[in-house]
Amino acid sequence: MSRVQTLEGTFGHGGGLGAAARLIGMREADLDDFSTNCFFAAASLTEHLLGGQARFSGAALLHYPDPEVRRLRAGLAVREAVPADMIVAGNGASELIWASLLALRGKGARRALFLGPIFVQYARACAALGLEQEHIVCREENAFLPDDSALDSVARSRADLVIVCSPNNPGTGVLRDFTPLMNAVGKRTLLLDACYRSFLQEEDPGFPRYSRLMELACPGGEAILLDSLTKFFCCPGVRLGFAVTGKELAAGIESCRPSWSVGMAAEDAGLTLLEKESAYRELLPALAEDVENLARHLEKSGMFRRVLRGTSFVAAAVKDGRAADMQERLLRLHGILIRVCDNVPGMPGGWVRIQARPESYMQRLYAALPA
Q1: pTM to 2 decimals?
Q2: Is the pLDDT of residue 96 over 80?
Q3: DSSP code at position 139
Q4: Strand locations in the chain, DSSP E?
């Protein structure tokens, strides 16, 4: 197993803190994990809302959860302004990636096109399901957003399914005009990974709604909007995600999910978080300031050739291109874990991703990366 795989945890993404701690002989509690994109400034709010609630008692302990996750889907239906039977809830967005691709394969899809940097789980799922893969790499000068040339390639592609991430992770770009993309997709299926859209203001054109996507879709085309509740609400240990799509495709995705994958405690947590979403949104201006402060520090450090501002993180290209070496040095010498992006499909080598936090939580990192 390579060093990057060792530090990034199982399957090259997420859950790498334990592996990192074992690698250097430290306790997990003594490490600073900047490798996630969760809304760190909201952690205390989430702890306040969920931490003190005894969820594993009574019905949540003694009965099977609702396999259709009806209460959470009803809450999400209000949020998304669509009928509940257009929503599929799952054990994180990752489960719904696999279920969506399996459902589309059952409908005849045989080839998926990845546009720009995309979550590594898509490539894993396609490989496991026997879907051919095609990649269009977008230019870093455009924050990895598709330009006219890339969209022309999408239009000419023979893929049945086009997969795009916006706001992009780790590429940082945000699509704000979806018309050219929908025209390029045409009568095919668009899977829009919008797991970071909640970090945008709701009036931002880059905050996609399923209804808006379908207004722009060509006749015969369809879309799946995929979202996560764990990043914005800073609860990656609570596995919750959802997809919004047409009723027939939603039923197909639902049929590809294992039963009871969303536990009663997770469903309760999701409903609690949705009720308090406005409190999280009030923290967004402070988060934008945290991102800007981190980006400026990295620029002043002189260690990076390009620094891009993301929704809750900063992506930076290491000058010498040796991102894994930087990751290992920060971990072994300073007890800091950052994300190396070398295994992200569509992302050039040599990039790292660092979570943005309030200034009072950044001193350990800033000491390790002096400006």
Answers
A1: 0.93
A2: yes
A3: P
A4: 32-33, 87-90, 111-115, 132-136, 161-165, 189-193, 222-228, 241-244, 304-309, 313-318, 336-337, 339-340, 351-355
